Amino acid sequence: MSERDPIREAHRQWTRHGWGDAADGMAMVTSVVRVQQLLLERIDAVLRPLDLTFARYEVLRLLSFSSAGGMPMTRLGSLLQVHATSVTSAVDRLEKQGYVGRARRDDDRRVVVASITEAGREVVETATEGLNRDVFERPGLAPQQVTALTALLGELRASAGDLVDG
After folding, report:
1. Strands (DSSP E) found in the chain
2. How far apart are CA 57 and CA 96, in angstroms?
3. Are strands 100-104 and 112-116 parallel, antiparallel or unpaired?
4. Cβ 100 vs Cβ 91: under 8 Å
5. How many Å is the maximal CA-CA distance in the chain?
6. How confident is the model at residue 2 (pLDDT cuts 50, 70, 90)?
7. d(Cα 88, Cα 108) in Å, to the nearest integer?
8. What is the pLDDT of residues 112-124, one digit of tens each?
9. Of all helices (H) and strands (E), which one includes residue 143?
């Protein structure tokens, strides 16, 4: 039996079962989810040896970009577009690893600020070098296709309520 594209086959089955109006959308959503899996495998190959996940990497990279090297936990969640519990979990783990410190602000004790440590700066630079080399510089599409796909995904994000620059 010859191998078939499972998503194309699912599209055919959707149409055959009378769901033709939804078949293209199902194929698009399933394709995006599959591409996410493929990209996460490549990302994990770089980050796993550093004992990082992509979520923890994003926290470190964002903290390293901030001029003060730290920011309130609520701001981290907002910029990363994740729930506060996800930020807390990531920062907890990064703190245990010695990559992040946490302290309450002197002027407002309700505000908890996460700050990157020197070890955190070192590991995020190593991670970024690997991600740039193995993932971001060669995502699997030509540069024009990368730009076009990013714009299309931006439209999809905007339609879901994300703030997307036009």
Report:
1. 70-72, 100-104, 112-116
2. 14
3. antiparallel
4. yes
5. 69
6. low
7. 19
8. 899 999 999 999 9
9. helix 143-159
Mark 61-92 as b/e (b = at least 16 C-beta within 10 Å): bbbeeeeebbbebebbbeebebeeeebbebbe
pTM, to two decimals: 0.88
Q: In angstroms, rounded to a whole number, what is the distance separating the alpha carbons of residues 162 and 111?
A: 25
Q: What is the CATH number of domain 51-161?
A: 1.10.10.10
Q: Length of the chain, please?
A: 166
Count of CB atoms situated within 10 Å of the CB of 60 = 26
pLDDT digits (tens, 9 = 90+) for 78-95: 999 898 899 999 999 999
Separation between Cα atoms, residue 103 and residue 113, nearest integer Å: 5
Which two structure tokens, joined as six digits, stand for 118? 């020197």
* Residues 18 and 34 sit within 8 Å (Cβ to Cβ): no
Residue 22: beta bridge partners? none
Q: Is 58:40 a contact under the CB 8 Å cutoff?
A: no
Q: Give the burial class of 99: count Cβ atoms within 10 A of its Cβ; 0-12 exposed, 13-18 middle, 19 or more buried.
A: buried
Domain-by-domain residue ranges, the chain? 1-49, 51-161
* Structure-token pair, residue 80: 């990363």
Identify residue 165 by its one-letter amino acid code: D
What would you report as the CA-atom Rg of the chain, rounded to the nearest whole angstrom? Answer: 20
